[in-house]
Amino acid sequence: TLEQYMSEIIRDLDQNQVLFKEPMQSITINNLQGFRYIIEVQGIVQYIYIKDPSRASVVVKIVDGTNDPTNQGYRGVVDQILSTFKFTPSD
Fold first, then answer.
1. What are the DSSP calls for 71-83, one per residue?
2. What's the pTM value of the predicted model, to 2 decimals?
């Protein structure tokens, strides 16, 4: 399952002593279920994994390293973009 896959990734990161800002948690993006974790590496980076509900072997990894130190609204733009994410039917 995607959760098992994510748990393996987290376990590997833990073994390499990666600094987690937020542990793995389930998320929903545009009605698609997935998981994310946030780590700190030269800034804060969010990793999102979403599984295609119609194709069990398809997983998308989204890496979001958006920083907005001057509060110009970049986080809102990223959230807006992610809210439109969808899988297209396979041929």
1. --SHHHHHHHHHT
2. 0.67
